[in-house]
Specification:
Rossmann fold; PUA domain-like; 8-stranded mixed β-sheet; about 25% helix; binds zinc ion
Length: about 550
């Protein structure tokens, strides 16, 4: 069994989180964001972003149906259609309707008849079709039925021949106060896809995912989802099983940062010697490391690329690929999907340090006369594309030194600064933060913000986020540099948190200090010390007015 071919598959994720005349469903926005990012993850399915269309808050039937029409035209392997929002059921015919932003609960003509959706899906040539409906039904016909009957009726009404259909019919209650990150059913799907299911095969069938989601919802006393499938659709696999032992655990090996016993300025005769010392493992490639692991571990700067520039503590490093192997002339554009280049882009996002090794062929001022020198740790501060001196485009990275110094002064400099060992970055005079720890926290959360779940992505599927210390490390706070004092946040929420514009309660509700209202609940996958949260509340809100006044 194999996964659906991502190149000939299409997904359309439709969701309405804001309504003009119906109650809002803020969790739906998170559903869309997270599902899209999971389907696109190379270790789960790897659907290209262009094949995964998110339709958020459509206001017209065209806005909802055009992307669906296009996807059903293009899909050859698998077509996946997802809808989350309010559903309506006609009080007389029990026909299903999917709402738009401006739909009214009692005017069916203001919503999209499910039949319209069904007809498009039927018309698709896709070999496999999946429909997931996660609807809140706000009453009317459903109000007369028990929840089980209602769920049956919706599932029957939504069935499409040859299609795997899942429906969840939550009643539109806000017992949870609207603070859940995802809607109940989609939240289960997300959890199962993201974490995998132990003791299941390497590829997860839809049916397996469904049964686990149903069991979990039943245990929680939540409305039980329904499925309808035909023989054709019974064994569709959707994603790789992250709990399967074949899936490598995401772990940061200790191969980032300095190598014990190797001082800055150490000279190696050849690539084999670099390899044996663990300073730069590949014997040929200039970039060691992968995006999946957290970024580049080491690079060799040897003057092979005409566009390289070496300024000592700043290096403009040209990416990998596109050169004629014999002449060294750039004959093709470089790509951010090249594994070495993707690794360097990821280094910029994770902030992990990159060991820089200079070969004798580079800038005479900084390069060793022969062999290779290990010149310390750099961060990737920026990257861009530009036209190479030969014509085709190349990628370039700006590397900035974070430890050590140009090789001619290395020893004296290090002794005078007494830098602590490890992968530490000076974040304030005399204060060092462990980059490896920050990278680990980001990986725990898959780069999603603990407040809003937003994942920032760049082309190529790479993602990034930031971390913040709850109780600052610097004077006078002197918080610890450990996991229990850290949060993984998007840049917006990091800054809001730093300025005390949001705070976190002991029950992990996030409070907007501008109006005192809760805006959600913190996603939690690691232990946080509540004392630090309390410290943050005490020291960043009592003087809140003064603090904000003093900001630019
Ligand atoms: Zn955020």
């Amino acid at each position: 069994m194999t996964l659906p071919d991502p190149l000939t598959s299409r997904a359309v994720l439709i969701g309405i989180s804001e309504y003009t005349h119906l109650s809002p469903l803020p969790a739906v926005a998170n559903n869309l964001q997270m599902l899209a990012s999971l389907l696109q993850r190379p270790d789960l399915w790897g659907l290209p972003a262009a094949h995964c269309t998110v339709v958020h808050n459509p206001t017209s039937i065209d806005a909802m149906m055009d992307p669906l029409w296009q996807a059903r035209e293009e899909a050859r392997d698998t077509l996946l259609v997802y809808f989350a929002g309010h559903g309506l059921m006609h009080s007389v015919e029990s026909d299903l309707y999917l709402t738009l932003v401006d739909s009214y609960r009692d005017r069916m003509y203001s919503a999209v008849a499910y039949d319209t959706v069904r007809n498009e899906i039927r018309a698709s040539f896709a070999r496999r079709k999946i429909v997931i409906l996660d609807c809140c039904y706000s009453g009317l016909a459903l109000g007369l039925l028990g929840p089980e009957d209602a769920a049956e009726r919706v599932a029957n009404g939504a069935r499409i021949n040859g299609t795997y259909l899942m429906t969840a019919t939550a009643e539109n209650k806000t017992a949870t106060g609207g603070l859940d990150t995802y809607t109940a059913f989609t939240g289960e799907l997300i959890h199962l896809i993201k974490e995998g299911i132990p003791e299941q095969p390497e590829l997860l069938e839809l049916d397996t995912i469904f049964h686990h989601a149903r069991a979990s919802l039943r245990d929680k006393g939540l409305p039980i989802p329904q499925k309808r499938e035909s023989n054709l659709a019974a064994h569709i696999t959707l994603v790789r099983n992250r709990a399967h032992k074949s899936q490598k655990q995401v772990t940061l090996k200790e191969s980032y940062g300095p190598i014990e016993g190797i001082r800055v300025g150490a000279i190696f005769n050849n690539r084999r010697a670099l390899h044996d010392a663990g300073v730069h493992r590949p014997l040929q490639a200039g970039i060691c490391g992968t995006a999946e692991r957290g970024g580049a571990e080491s690079i060799v700067v040897s003057g092979g690329y005409k566009d390289d520039e070496d300024h000592g503590d700043v290096i403009i490093y040209t990416g990998h690929g596109g050169r004629d192997p014999n002449t060294g002339v750039q004959i093709k554009d470089q790509s951010s999907e090249d594994s070495g280049n993707a690794a360097l882009i990821m280094s910029m996002m994770t902030g992990l340090p990159v060991r820089v090794i200079r070969g004798s062929g580079g800038n005479k001022r900084f390069s060793p006369p022969a062999g290779y020198s290990y010149d310390g740790l750099f961060t990737v501060a920026d990257y861009w594309t530009k036209r190479s001196v030969n014509g085709p485009n190349v990628l370039q990275f700006r590397l900035e030194q974070i430890e050590g110094s140009p090789p001619e002064k290395a020893t004296a400099h290090r002794l005078s600064r007494k830098l602590p060992p490890g992968r530490r970055e000076e974040i304030a005079p005399g204060i060092y933060a462990d980059r490896l720890l920050a990278a680990k926290i980001k990986q725990i959360y898959d780069y999603a913000c603990q407040v809003c779940s937003v994942v920032l992505e760049v082309p190529g599927g790479l993602r990034f986020s930031t971390t913040v210390h709850i109780r600052g490390l610097e004077q006078p706070h002197l918080g610890p540099d450990n996991e229990a004092n850290m949060l993984c946040l998007c840049p917006n929420h990091r800054d809001l948190f730093k300025y005390g514009a949001i705070t976190i309660e002991d029950d992990f509700r996030v409070i907007d200090q501008t109006d005192g209202e809760p805006i959600g609940k913190l996603t939690l996958k690691h232990d946080i010390d509540r004392d630090h949260l309390r410290y943050h509340r005490q020291h960043h809100t009592l003087g809140h007015r003064r603090l904000t006044d003093s900001l630019d």
